[in-house]
Write a structure and sequence with these properties.
The protein has 8 helices and 5 strands. The protein is an alpha/beta fold. The strands form 2 sheets. A 3-stranded parallel sheet has the order 1-2-3. The chain has a two-stranded antiparallel ribbon with strand order 4-5. The model has no long low-confidence stretch (mean pLDDT 84).
Protein backbone atom coordinates (compact mmCIF):
# COMPACT_ATOMS: atom_id res chain seq x y z
CA UNK A 1 0.00 0.00 0.00
CA UNK A 2 1.26 3.46 -0.87
CA UNK A 3 1.45 5.64 2.27
CA UNK A 4 0.09 8.57 0.25
CA UNK A 5 -3.20 6.69 -0.11
CA UNK A 6 -3.69 6.40 3.65
CA UNK A 7 -6.24 8.81 5.10
CA UNK A 8 -6.06 10.22 8.60
CA UNK A 9 -9.32 8.44 9.43
CA UNK A 10 -8.04 5.03 8.29
CA UNK A 11 -4.76 5.57 10.11
CA UNK A 12 -6.58 6.36 13.35
CA UNK A 13 -8.71 3.24 12.94
CA UNK A 14 -5.55 1.11 12.94
CA UNK A 15 -3.80 2.67 15.93
CA UNK A 16 -4.45 2.25 19.65
CA UNK A 17 -2.86 4.61 22.15
CA UNK A 18 -2.19 4.35 25.89
CA UNK A 19 -0.56 7.44 27.39
CA UNK A 20 0.64 8.48 30.84
CA UNK A 21 -2.29 10.88 31.19
CA UNK A 22 -5.25 8.67 30.40
CA UNK A 23 -8.18 10.27 28.61
CA UNK A 24 -11.33 9.29 30.49
CA UNK A 25 -14.77 10.86 30.50
CA UNK A 26 -17.37 11.60 33.18
CA UNK A 27 -19.31 8.51 32.21
CA UNK A 28 -19.55 4.85 33.19
CA UNK A 29 -16.66 2.42 33.21
CA UNK A 30 -18.31 0.46 30.40
CA UNK A 31 -18.72 3.57 28.24
CA UNK A 32 -15.11 4.60 28.84
CA UNK A 33 -13.79 1.17 27.83
CA UNK A 34 -16.07 1.06 24.77
CA UNK A 35 -15.13 4.56 23.59
CA UNK A 36 -14.15 4.32 19.93
CA UNK A 37 -15.83 0.94 19.44
CA UNK A 38 -19.49 1.66 18.66
CA UNK A 39 -21.79 -1.24 19.42
CA UNK A 40 -19.35 -3.08 21.69
CA UNK A 41 -21.16 -5.75 23.69
CA UNK A 42 -20.99 -5.97 27.47
CA UNK A 43 -19.33 -9.35 27.08
CA UNK A 44 -16.58 -7.86 24.87
CA UNK A 45 -16.09 -4.98 27.33
CA UNK A 46 -15.72 -7.41 30.25
CA UNK A 47 -13.33 -9.64 28.29
CA UNK A 48 -11.11 -6.63 27.56
CA UNK A 49 -11.30 -5.56 31.22
CA UNK A 50 -10.25 -9.03 32.38
CA UNK A 51 -7.23 -9.05 30.06
CA UNK A 52 -6.29 -5.58 31.35
CA UNK A 53 -6.64 -6.66 35.02
CA UNK A 54 -9.42 -4.12 35.48
CA UNK A 55 -12.32 -6.53 36.00
CA UNK A 56 -11.25 -7.35 39.56
CA UNK A 57 -11.49 -3.77 40.85
CA UNK A 58 -14.58 -3.01 38.74
CA UNK A 59 -16.45 -5.89 40.38
CA UNK A 60 -15.83 -4.34 43.83
CA UNK A 61 -17.65 -1.13 42.87
CA UNK A 62 -21.33 -0.73 43.84
CA UNK A 63 -22.56 -0.37 40.23
CA UNK A 64 -19.70 -2.36 38.68
CA UNK A 65 -19.42 -1.46 34.96
CA UNK A 66 -22.21 1.10 35.33
CA UNK A 67 -20.21 3.12 37.88
CA UNK A 68 -19.59 6.72 36.84
CA UNK A 69 -15.92 7.56 37.29
CA UNK A 70 -15.97 11.35 37.33
CA UNK A 71 -14.23 13.80 35.06
CA UNK A 72 -10.88 12.36 33.86
CA UNK A 73 -11.54 9.30 36.04
CA UNK A 74 -10.93 11.26 39.25
CA UNK A 75 -12.69 8.62 41.37
CA UNK A 76 -10.09 6.01 40.38
CA UNK A 77 -6.43 5.47 41.25
CA UNK A 78 -3.72 6.00 38.64
CA UNK A 79 -3.31 2.26 38.17
CA UNK A 80 -7.05 1.77 37.74
CA UNK A 81 -7.20 4.53 35.12
CA UNK A 82 -4.29 2.96 33.21
CA UNK A 83 -5.96 -0.45 33.24
CA UNK A 84 -9.15 1.07 31.79
CA UNK A 85 -7.09 2.69 29.03
CA UNK A 86 -5.46 -0.67 28.30
CA UNK A 87 -8.89 -2.35 28.27
CA UNK A 88 -10.04 0.27 25.75
CA UNK A 89 -7.04 -0.45 23.52
CA UNK A 90 -7.63 -4.21 23.83
CA UNK A 91 -11.27 -3.78 22.85
CA UNK A 92 -10.32 -1.64 19.85
CA UNK A 93 -7.97 -4.44 18.78
CA UNK A 94 -5.73 -2.20 16.65
CA UNK A 95 -2.78 -3.77 14.83
CA UNK A 96 -0.54 -0.83 15.81
CA UNK A 97 -0.06 0.45 19.37
CA UNK A 98 1.59 3.54 20.77
CA UNK A 99 2.40 3.32 24.48
CA UNK A 100 3.66 6.67 25.71
CA UNK A 101 5.00 6.47 29.28
CA UNK A 102 2.13 4.12 30.13
CA UNK A 103 3.69 3.05 33.47
CA UNK A 104 5.66 6.12 34.50
CA UNK A 105 3.40 7.41 37.27
CA UNK A 106 2.42 4.13 38.92
CA UNK A 107 3.31 2.60 42.26
CA UNK A 108 5.12 -0.76 42.22
CA UNK A 109 1.98 -2.90 42.75
CA UNK A 110 0.00 -1.11 40.04
CA UNK A 111 3.00 -1.28 37.71
CA UNK A 112 3.12 -5.08 37.96
CA UNK A 113 -0.56 -5.37 37.03
CA UNK A 114 -0.22 -2.83 34.22
CA UNK A 115 2.97 -4.52 32.92
CA UNK A 116 1.12 -7.82 32.66
CA UNK A 117 -1.85 -6.11 30.99
CA UNK A 118 0.52 -4.41 28.53
CA UNK A 119 2.07 -7.79 27.69
CA UNK A 120 -1.45 -9.03 26.83
CA UNK A 121 -2.08 -5.90 24.80
CA UNK A 122 1.15 -6.02 22.78
CA UNK A 123 0.87 -9.70 21.85
CA UNK A 124 0.79 -10.09 18.02
CA UNK A 125 0.85 -6.35 17.40
CA UNK A 126 3.36 -3.73 16.34
CA UNK A 127 4.00 -1.54 19.37
CA UNK A 128 5.94 1.68 19.74
CA UNK A 129 6.78 2.01 23.42
CA UNK A 130 8.09 5.33 24.70
CA UNK A 131 9.43 4.81 28.20
CA UNK A 132 11.91 6.03 30.76
CA UNK A 133 11.23 3.00 32.97
CA UNK A 134 13.25 0.37 31.17
CA UNK A 135 11.26 -2.46 32.77
CA UNK A 136 8.55 -1.47 30.28
CA UNK A 137 10.72 -2.32 27.25
CA UNK A 138 12.73 -5.33 28.46
CA UNK A 139 10.75 -7.84 26.38
CA UNK A 140 10.77 -5.79 23.16
CA UNK A 141 12.05 -7.35 19.93
CA UNK A 142 14.01 -4.17 19.23
CA UNK A 143 14.91 -1.27 21.53
CA UNK A 144 16.00 2.07 20.14
CA UNK A 145 17.89 4.14 22.72
CA UNK A 146 17.94 7.88 22.17
CA UNK A 147 20.48 10.30 23.56
CA UNK A 148 20.13 14.04 23.00
CA UNK A 149 17.49 13.43 20.33
CA UNK A 150 19.60 11.02 18.28
CA UNK A 151 19.64 7.23 17.98
CA UNK A 152 22.47 6.00 20.20
CA UNK A 153 21.87 2.23 20.10
CA UNK A 154 19.53 -0.39 18.68
CA UNK A 155 19.19 -3.97 19.90
CA UNK A 156 17.44 -6.39 22.24
CA UNK A 157 17.57 -5.92 26.02
CA UNK A 158 20.30 -8.51 26.60
CA UNK A 159 22.38 -7.26 23.65
CA UNK A 160 22.24 -3.68 24.88
CA UNK A 161 23.15 -4.67 28.45
CA UNK A 162 26.18 -6.56 27.11
CA UNK A 163 27.66 -3.40 25.58
CA UNK A 164 30.10 -1.98 28.15
CA UNK A 165 29.72 1.77 28.40
CA UNK A 166 26.54 1.71 26.32
CA UNK A 167 23.80 4.27 26.94
CA UNK A 168 21.12 1.63 27.64
CA UNK A 169 23.38 -0.33 30.01
CA UNK A 170 24.18 2.85 31.96
CA UNK A 171 20.51 3.84 32.22
CA UNK A 172 19.54 0.33 33.29
CA UNK A 173 22.25 0.24 35.97
CA UNK A 174 21.09 3.61 37.31
CA UNK A 175 17.48 2.44 37.53
CA UNK A 176 18.42 -0.80 39.29
CA UNK A 177 20.58 1.17 41.74
CA UNK A 178 17.73 3.64 42.42
CA UNK A 179 15.26 0.78 43.01
CA UNK A 180 17.59 -0.87 45.51
CA UNK A 181 18.30 2.42 47.28
CA UNK A 182 14.63 3.45 47.73
CA UNK A 183 13.72 0.78 50.35
CA UNK A 184 16.82 1.68 52.39
CA UNK A 185 15.88 5.36 52.30
CA UNK A 186 12.37 4.54 53.54
CA UNK A 187 13.85 2.53 56.42
CA UNK A 188 12.68 -0.82 55.07
Amino acid sequence: MDIRDVTLKSLREHIGIVTQETVLFDDTIASNIAYGVPGASRSDIETAARAAHAHEFVETLPKKYDTRIGERGQRLSGGQRQRLAIARALLKNSPILILDEATSSLDAESELLVQDALANLMRNRTAFVIAHRLSTVRRADSIVTLERGRVAEVGRHDELLARPGGVYAKLYALQIFDQRREPAERGA
